[in-house]
Amino acid sequence: MASANIFPSFEQFMCSICLDVFTEPVSTPCGHNYCKRCITNYWDVKKISCCPLCKEIFPTTPELRVNTEFRDILELFNRTRAAGDNSGSLAQPGEVPCDFCHDMKRKALKSCLVCLASYCSAHLQPHHTVQALKWHKLMKPVENLKDRVCKKHNKVIEFFCRKEQSCVCVLCLRDDHVMHEAVSVEEELKDRKTELKCMKRKVNDTLSQKSIIAQRIQDSVKLGRQEVERTKAEITKTFTALMALIETKKVKLIELLEEKQKASEQRAEALVRQLQLEIAENRQISTKLEELSETEDEFRLLQGLPSISSPSNSKHHFAAPTQSLLHIETVRRAVANIEETLNKFMEDRIREVNLAVKEETAEEPMDTEAQDVFDDKLGKIQKQYAIKVTLDPNTAHPSLILSEDRKQVWDGCSKRRVPDNPERFDTLHFVLGNEGFSSGRFYYEVMLKGQRGWEVGVAREPIRKKGVNLSLCPENGCWTLGSYWGRCQANANPPVILSLSTQPQKVGVFVNYEEGSVSFYDVDTRALIYSFTRCAFTGSVPFWTDLLASWVNTGTLTKTKVYPIFRPSGEEGSRSAPLQITPVRYKKGKQ
């Protein structure tokens, strides 16, 4: 390193034109140095030849020759600078230092498995130039080279015994592992690195899947909390309205009874006043008659008797109420019936909630596979609530073609001659299922493979089937999922565009009538696509309000039916790919 300090600085070997180390250095008559190409190009663009630094003008363009001695000095400078760049950097924390540097430990460039030492660039030169050292095995610098030496034979570990899964030297392989499968350390490292990549990829995939599942669980919990809060608010609102309605009817009935009683009392008071006047008049007549009966002047009797009102005028038509204005037993029985109906309904709802909680807590633990939570949910739906659905030909649009078993439907793209009845769609290319449901839960599946545009779901009766101004949205009693121009959407108001990685080939439709929900599942991936909630199956008002109002008004439950609804692809050539109602085959886990 002391020899390196005798050289000038880097700037002194820099051309002032290209600002880089001289290439083919030449000297001008004024004594300044330039790259031959740089000064030649400089003079080519100038009208006169002059020095770029001192501006001395030369009468004629000087004939330049390469300064060979200066060039050799430059080459020596470049080699020294390169060696200094490689061997001059000091070893930083975490880097392998050179074992042969005494004072300032420099960064090792290679480690020798034969010498069991690490070398910087300067101390490594003998391994490249000395013939006796060229056969040494060099590798990337590593610490603790002693760990790579067999402690038994003091030989470099070069092999790996796959039977005993240990590193061995050539003598170990000859003495103790002669019948074992052994490979070179490099080959085993290559296999281990490949296995490591596979394990890392598998772990990353597992982490990604579990992260997705965890996010789905969190989203499900969040949606469940929102749904519970909405349901609680609606129940509170409904029961508040019910109690207000009962209180209003009670007050009105009491006010009516009070009015009837007050009118009766007023009539009685008027009759009493009239009777009191007549009683006073009769008493006066009685007094006069008493006086006449006691008089001694009999001649007075001949003068006349006081007049007495006729008996018909003294009859007052007032009938005291002999029975109550309201049959209290009738009221009591009606209230008891309403109370019994309401209590039975609420007990059923509480039992359903308790059953749902027990089913959720009884699901398999996450240690087998977290995805089973979702698979089992769809599996339970398939196992418990699957139904047989057939198509109703009386509702099919004239262009739709139904199979003989009424399980498949095509769009022929042209109207056929069929009977026109009130149940048939005449504009929209829809067909209803033959079976309607007004309670419970049901599930069916539809094969959509080959369908470019489709729509499936359920519709509430009565659904409008005539005319062009139709909107099959939840407000009009229709809850469907559809595919339009390669894009899947839930037909809410407004429609909800769904971001799906792939278009579903088989869709499962699950309806919970009492809960008021319609859910759509991708059967192949067993993933929930979309759910409609708070569905008004019983009318255009919220479910709880409609149900309780029906109790108050009639004392019984009034329900409407919902029917499966279908629309196949309407493009030409779709005859070969029908929309098909398929049997539900329950299978736990991914299919």
How would you describe what is shown here?
- Helix content is 37%, strand content 16%.
- It is an alpha+beta fold and 591 residues long.
- A 7-stranded antiparallel β-sheet has the order 11-12-23-14-19-20-21, covered by helices on one side.
- Strand 20 and strand 21 form a beta hairpin.
- The longest helix has 110 residues.
- The radius of gyration is 53 Å and the shape is elongated.
- The N terminus is likely disordered.
What are the salient characteristics of this protein?
alpha+beta, disordered N terminus
Uncertain stretches of 5 or more adjacent residues: 1-7, 363-375, 540-546
Reported for the largest beta sheet, the result is:
7 strands, antiparallel
Strand order in the sheet with the most strands: 11-12-23-14-19-20-21
Mean pLDDT: 80
Please state the structural category: alpha+beta
Q: Work out the radius of gyration.
A: 53 Å
- Tally of helical segments: 9
What is the number of beta strands? 23
Assembly context of the chains:
single chain
Helical content band: 25-40%
Shape: elongated
Q: Strand fraction band?
A: 15-25%
Spatial separation of the terminal alpha carbons: 73 Å
Task: Note the topology.
Layout: E1 25-27, E2 33-35, H1 36-44, E3 49-50, E4 57-58, H2 68-87, E5 110-112, E6 117-119, H3 121-129, E7 138-139, E8 159-161, E9 166-168, H4 170-175, E10 182-184, H5 185-294, H6 299-302, H7 328-361, H8 372-385, E11 400-402, E12 408-411, E13 431-432, E14 441-447, E15 454-460, E16 478-484, E17 487-490, E18 496-497, E19 506-512, E20 517-522, E21 527-532, H9 543-554, E22 562-567, E23 579-582
Antiparallel strand pairs: 1-2, 3-4, 5-6, 5-7, 8-9, 8-10, 11-12, 12-23, 13-22, 14-19, 14-23, 15-16, 15-22, 16-17, 17-18, 19-20, 20-21
